[in-house]
Amino acid sequence: MKILFNCMLVVFSLLLFCGCGKKAPTTGKIEFSGPPGLVVSFQGKAFRKTPVVLRTRPGEYNFRLAAPGYYPEFRRVAVRAGEVNKVKVQLESVRSAILIDSEPRGAKVRFQGEIRGATPLILSDLPAGEHAVQLLMPGYSEEQIRWRITDERLHPRMIAKLKMTSGRIVVKTVPDTATVFINGKRVGLSPYSSTLESGVYALRIEREGFNSIEEQVIVPRGGTVRRDIRLETTPGTIKITSSPSGAEVFLNDKKVGVTPWTVPGVQPGNYRIRAAFSGYDFVEKTVSVAPSQTENVHLTLARSTGSASFVIRPAGVQCLVDGRLCGVVQAVGDSVTETRPIVVENLSPGRHVLTVTHPRALPVKKEISFTIAKGKRYTAREKIELWVSNCEITFKDGRVESGMIYSEDEKFIYYSPTVGIRYPVQRNYIRTIKYIPVTAK
């Protein structure tokens, strides 16, 4: 009984073991990937869904691999049970050729950014897919040809009819042999003709001795633009300078400017030029102006007046010549006694009267007569002084005085307490000096 039980237990264990275990795999997989449109043919069936995945029994099988634009290929692939064999398909691209032509012929063919030749032109060894060329010819618009290669057959001839974009320009001038410029570039002499792309151009004509001509011209597509131009003589120019500069310039009694002065656009002929400057005698000259030439004229004017120079003290004194104010005396820097000379210009020859005055002067004014010679300067030999109180001195003994300091040095001041009295005062006798501004009343 015990032996029977043990046998049943062993059988039960074997059955339990065999029922719970997994079965060994009996198939394998193949996964194909490759160019777009890949078709895998196997055992008379075509599979197109990418990637192509096939399940089959272990072994080696033949597959046909094809895709649009590629040569088909047969490949033997092994399949192992329970494994996935990934196959990356790389096919050889189909190659073809095409004949490119144009009307008119001779257009340059640009393919993939490079000039490959001129029409008619055969492009060979072209892979499958989209292609394009550009046709280029001077005077014609750029054209493009596009095509698609799907197999290795010679593609039919592709031809493009080019559209003319150029025209002609013809330029004649009187007189001829004028220089012709187009868009600022010298292109030749008149009479001139050329073929240009249709459009708008800047035309300029130049010839020495004549006015230049500038205008815009429109060159029509397939047509001709003609320009017959009569050139006009270029006027001359007068450049006028003078000594001294700044003189008024008159051309045939008409004022035109101030020297230095340039008078452009003067027609050929004789002209009378006059220069005038205050304090100088005017000067006149006749010049002859030739076409396209520049006449340089220099006029030297002689003084008709004279001038006068005076040293006047103190600063702040007003100066009048013949009753006309001509200046106020200025101090040299911060000096109380030193002043700058007064110079009076453009005085007519003859006798004049200088009047110097100040509201605090004693006397209030002083007059000096002087004579001017033509073109000469009168310089007063002596300083002209007015007595004007310009200081307040406090002496060490307590005295306070107001007066005028004429000059000073390290040890002395030269002092005038009133008109007609002057004497030096040692600085060690002085406690303080208060200077009175010349503008004080």
Describe the structure.
It is a single chain. This protein has 441 residues and is mainly beta. It has 6 domains: 28-88, Carboxypeptidase-like, regulatory domain (Immunoglobulin-like, Sandwich); 95-161, Sandwich (Immunoglobulin-like), CATH 2.60.40.10; 170-230, Sandwich (Immunoglobulin-like), CATH 2.60.40; 236-300, Carboxypeptidase-like, regulatory domain (Immunoglobulin-like); 306-387, Immunoglobulin-like (Sandwich), CATH 2.60.40; 389-435, SH3 type barrels. The chain contains 1 helix and 44 strands. A 5-stranded antiparallel β-sheet has the order 43-42-41-40-44, with no helix packed on it. The radius of gyration is 57 Å and the shape is elongated. The chain starts with a helix and ends in a 6-residue tail after the last strand. Residues 1-21 have low confidence and may be disordered.
